[in-house]
């Protein structure tokens, strides 16, 4: 990418999630670069998301994407990050200055990944988005403020997400193994194929640091069993109710807001999508269901373009969307 005459129109857009960083660079009015992915999640520590580890990954990625322009100034950076609302204090304190020193960034937007998912799916308009993968969060806005529901992690919430579905499927398998009511023979067979004898399942699951992902890995098997197994179908119907409850809690009550689904969980297809759409229609009859246009990285790019052009209209609350000038935080190139 050739250097721009005015660094203010040049931007970085980053999606930081459970599978690592995805980064693009671009400038207003031009296509962005191809995305580059790290494959390594940013560490968390006592202050939450580790800004130092974030920069260790980001700097060489930007330099690779930008080539000869990699050491030039980048006027704007938008960072969409998983856990920003609850684990973002360190990132908010340290990252703007680090970006100013390394890239000459003048304006930084630190954005919860739920917001980048929202903007990627719906753009900047009133509505609600259910983002579901290993976890689950719903986010909505009337363009004056943000509302979120769930997203509390696999121990306290994420109801209806991949880990929730996988755990419910494994519970049904264990019920069948024990001979208790509510068990599922098909799910028991799938669980034994995936994990081995059920008596060893706790020892294989509980010590795992990636336990939510392991649980979520069983969710597709629940979907595979659902057409012929009422227990599996019931789990997906319950997941759909949880999703609709969360969407209803955040969706603007007036007008004709749009509602969209985004995230890898919905790749399970009709066994999940059909009950989700039915439950949404019951709870949000005034909302218009639409297909998600893009993903969280697309949302980060949209926010970066608008911010660089001075046209950002998203509500900024300091937590879900935190926009800061880096003036005085670093020596620009």
Written description of the protein model:
By secondary structure, the chain is of the alpha/beta class. Helix content is 42%, strand content 19%. It is built from twelve helices and 13 strands. It has helices at residues 51-66, 84-87, 89-103, 113-122, 162-178, 185-195, 201-205, 211-216, 219-225, 230-250, 270-283, 296-308; strands at residues 10-17, 20-27, 36-37, 44-45, 48-49, 76-81, 107-112, 127-132, 136-141, 146-150, 258-262, 288-289, 321-325. The strands form three sheets. Strands 3-2-1-6-7-13 form a six-stranded mixed sheet, with helices on both faces. Strands 10-9-8-11-12 form a five-stranded mixed sheet, sandwiched between helices. A hairpin with an 8-residue loop joins strand 2 and strand 3 (36-37). Helix 4 crosses helix 12, helix 5 packs antiparallel against helix 10 (230-250) and helix 10 packs across helix 11. The protein starts with 9 loop residues before the first strand and ends in an 8-residue tail after the last strand. The model is unreliable at 1-5 (pLDDT under 50).
């Amino acid at each position: 990418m050739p250097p721009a005459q005015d660094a203010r129109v040049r931007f970085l857009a980053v999606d930081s999630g459970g599978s690592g960083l995805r980064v693009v660079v671009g400038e207003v009015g031009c296509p962005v670069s191809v995305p580059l992915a790290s494959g390594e999640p940013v560490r968390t520590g006592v202050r939450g998301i580790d800004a130092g580890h974030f920069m260790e990954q980001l700097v060489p990625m930007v330099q690779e994407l930008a080539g000869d322009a990699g050491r030039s100034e980048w006027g704007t950076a938008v960072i969409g990050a998983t856990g920003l609302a609850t684990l973002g204090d360190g990132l908010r304190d340290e990252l703007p200055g680090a970006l100013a020193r390394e890239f000459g960034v003048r304006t930084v937007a630190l954005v919860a990944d739920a917001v980048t998912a929202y903007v990627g799916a719906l753009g900047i308009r009133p509505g609600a988005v259910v983002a579901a993968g290993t976890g689950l969060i719903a986010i909505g806005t009337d363009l004056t403020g943000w509302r979120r529901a769930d997203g509390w992690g696999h121990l306290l919430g994420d109801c209806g997400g991949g880990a929730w579905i996988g755990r419910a499927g494994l519970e049904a398998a264990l019920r069948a193994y024990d001979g208790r009511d509510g068990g599922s023979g098909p799910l028991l067979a799938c669980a034994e194929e995936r994990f081995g004898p059920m008596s060893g399942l706790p020892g294989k699951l509980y010590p795992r640091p990636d336990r939510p992902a392991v649980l979520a890995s069983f969710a597709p098997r629940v979907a595979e069993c659902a057409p012929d197994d009422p227990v599996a179908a019931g789990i997906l119907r319950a997941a759909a109710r949880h999703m609709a409850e969360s969407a209803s809690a955040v969706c603007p009550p007036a007008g004709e807001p749009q509602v969209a689904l985004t995230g890898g969980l919905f790749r399970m297809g009709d066994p999940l999508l059909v009950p989700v759409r039915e439950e949404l229609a019951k709870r949000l009859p005034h909302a218009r269901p639409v297909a998600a246009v893009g993903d969280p990285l697309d949302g980060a790019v949209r926010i970066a373009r608008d911010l660089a052009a001075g046209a950002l209209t998203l509500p900024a609350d300091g937590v879900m969307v935190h926009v800061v000038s880096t003036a005085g935080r670093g020596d620009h190139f």
